[in-house]
Design a protein that fits this description.
homodimer, about 350 residues, alpha+beta, HIT family, subunit A, three-stranded mixed beta sheet, 6 helices, 15 strands, about 25% helix, globular
């Protein structure tokens, strides 16, 4: 019989219905498509004039802005979903309806000069530099009174919504706390009131003790498939230390986070033939107090199934693979196997 | 500047960011793929033994169950996401987590003997018979104390999650009121408390008066693009008469609903080259009182864009087409144009 599982933080239910996995279409993986050839790629070296001017770059000393010599480059999105950020959003009314100016931030963080290397291929030290650049942009926007929430996301693969192939992340700054984050904040508060503990800290303790959903651990992080996983191979990376904010990581934590992210994605790439995926970082809202009862983390969802009418009409996901099987599979991926070199770290 | 719009019922915000529509990938329409050839289709005439035994059929007098002679056939899903329905769901605890048996209903309603004709091609009278069969199955499950919510959905096209090409709908019966419906119920109550009126009735009145988002009207129904549309060409069909339940439609309303659904989908098919879409019917929960403050309706979302990391991480949709443009486009589709005969009603 299918099993319903409740997310410990938000209280949302998920259906685990493994019999449906027999359907051959469940794990269809379309062949990789080159979305944008390198020759016309606006994110490749030498094409710096195809993007708006950079707002941050990790580049070699002596090189000029918006010219080659960079390792990581952050630019405003040419087609922003939010922006500009330089004023308070005006609210208005149209008949019975409310509107608000979509002020905010929409930036692109270009991962590296390589058109193809992503988190599975980039060296851990380079990923740590991406983490530092992300934190620098969080911090740059945190003082803006018009921005209530900052979200860092990554779309990998055309089926996951990546419109440009060259690996990049996106930073969104929006003028309200979004509902998914609001639910997690309320769930964290509710759990604290009931148990006098952080819901994420309790979850980590249980996952380490049980072990069956753990994918990997590092000094400062644990990656596991959440108990109420919404999709096959959904994976979270959570810091062991209780901390509300991504952007307050220490230097060693930043490097260790880069290591965890690299290994998680290398396991997905090697085990599932470079699947499309989305990840995002949930951190506390910009203007919340330092004691906010939250525990930042990364949520990664491979896009191997399609959310259809049932999921849209209910908000309940149907997952055809148990998180225990997902985690066992990802733990078992051999990152040193000869056939999988493309997925293991390569010199940059 | 992008505009944020608030859904009048749920209070959720949507970003309307039309500049992003310049991206050529925004409206990519993959060529239609035959997901399941008719020869091996379990829903085609003569293949009745490839499904579980039928639970309802609209069939010619004198024909035998699970044999040819049917116009519409309802069978249990071979790979159910919920079920069986015949007992109370047992709740259990795993460490800190809650689980519940996934009891419920998951049925397939095969639209017609045709492997290809869908709502745009089927005659209105046949669609009215589909509506009647759907209502019969709603009613059959409404007395089950284990079922709290019944949802009828339709997935059209592989990109929208249809794993079998032969047109069919699905009825889900689940042991709780799902969060998306809960939000609409709470929003309806909140609006009633503030305005002493039904939020959907007020919305219909405004949409008829303004006209700019109306797609079509019939005697008993109005179809419009909602003010806070989540996707390009999102369309709702709402009964003009305040009524909480889909399954309580009168005979003339059922026929008129079939007419509205046929025309809406014919406009989508003719105007957008048979796009993939999902639709579902939101009706009051099974065991709610007859006076429940709700107004049933159908929500249809074409799948022309991909919900990616931002949408997953926030619950906020980015829509690259205004609902005013969507409605104007769909109103303007010429259903009698010679090149579009496949999309207009054809004799069955």
């Amino acid at each position: 019989m299918p099993q319903l599982r409740q997310d410990l933080v938000t209280g949302r239910w998920v259906t685990i219905a493994t019999e449906r996995a027999r359907r051959p279409s469940s794990f269809s993986r379309a062949p990789a498509v080159a979305v944008s050839p390198a020759a016309t790629c606006p994110f490749c070296v030498g094409h710096e004039d195809m993007t708006p001017p950079e707002v941050l770059a990790d580049r070699a000393p002596g090189t000029l802005p918006n010219a080659p010599g960079w390792e990581i480059r952050v630019v405003p999105n040419l087609y922003p979903a939010f922006g500009p950020p330089d004023r308070e959003p005006v609210q208005a009314r149209v008949g019975p309806y409310e509107t608000m100016d979509g002020v905010g931030v929409h930036e692109v963080l270009i991962s590296s000069p390589s058109h193809t290397d992503d988190f599975a291929q980039l060296p851990v030290e380079h990923i740590a530099r991406i983490v530092r650049a992300s934190i620098a942009r969080y911090t740059a926007h945190a003082a803006n009174p018009a921005i209530e929430y900052l979200l860092l996301i990554n779309n990998h693969g055309k089926e996951a919504g990546a419109s440009l192939e060259h690996p990049h992340s996106q930073l969104f700054g929006i003028p309200f706390v979004p509902p998914v984050v609001q639910e997690e904040l309320e769930g964290s508060r509710r759990y604290r009131a009931a148990h006098r503990a952080c819901v994420f800290c309790d979850m980590i303790a249980w996952e380490e003790q049980s072990g069956e959903r753990v994918i990997l651990t590092t000094d400062h992080f644990i990656a596991f498939a959440p108990f109420a996983a919404r999709t096959p191979f959904e994976s979270w990376i959570v810091p062991r230390r209780h901390a509300a904010r991504f952007e307050m990581m220490s230097g060693p934590e930043q490097e260790d986070f880069a290591r965890a992210l690299h290994e998680l994605i290398a396991r997905l790439v090697a085990g599932l033939n470079d699947p499309p995926y989305n990840f995002y970082i949930h951190t506390a809202p910009v203007h919340s107090s330092p004691e906010t009862d939250y525990h930042w983390h990364l949520e990664l969802l491979p896009k191997l199934t399609i959310a259809a009418g049932f999921e849209l009409g209910t908000g309940v996901m149907i997952n055809v693979v148990t998180p225990e099987s997902s985690a066992e599979f990802l733990r078992g991926v051999d990152l040193s196997a000869p056939g999988l070199t493309a997925a293991t770290p390569t010199p940059h």
